[in-house]
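Our platform keeps sequence and structure together, in a single record for each protein. Nothing more is needed to write down the fold, since each code stands for a local backbone conformation. An entry from our holdings is shown next, in its original layout:
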Amino acid sequence: MPEGDTVFRVARRLDRALRGGVITRFDLRVPELATADLRGESIADVTARGKHLLMHAGGMTLRSHLRMDGAWHLYRPGERWRAPAFRARAVVGTAEAEAVGFDVSMLALVPTREEAALVGHLGPDPLGPDWDPAEAARRIHADVRPIHVALLDQRNVAGFGNEYAAELLFLRGVRPTTPAPDVDAAALVALGARTIRANIDRVDRTFTGIDRRGQTTWVYGRARRPCRRCGTPIETGELGASPTEERILFWCPTCQR
């Protein structure tokens, strides 16, 4: 699933292409929004809030989420799409550019004054203008669940996904099953903010500082392979807030005690 840095880059790219343009094409291909029409309205901006992408135009907010397979493409007007049209869920065009959301989910269109109904539940976003590390740490510390689960809960911190959780916990030497109140939440949050900010301008996300293929992570995706620090085989398992929300864990049993 795309994480906060990926959504931030998508929003930035869409904003650069669409900001200030007048909407000439507006097509939301979901039944409940099929009649919505913002043609003639100017696009104020496109921003990210955690893993949610928000497009503002005409006093309205269009929210989308990439989930596992979603993507926003940019085209010149009339250019052939690089994905099948049946996968398009949203099309927003101006005279200069056309944005097409393929397989995006959680589409919603509300007055911007009611935007909090869509994203108000989210915790502080380390890539947002109102980042509050103390509040993020407070929320994580108050969560009695395993730290991996607490870190993935977007109500605690917005933007971190499974890869970030695995890598940040390795870097802090914390086993993913450790109760969140037993972890130095402030240090974990500070490391997470520095890491995700460092990654927003990289072509490939990296936690090791090396951007070569296969060398970007310490533990994520490396089950049974030797730890890059100590050589112990990386262990794996599953954990989640509920059986339907379980994620694959990766950790080094020696480095994360």
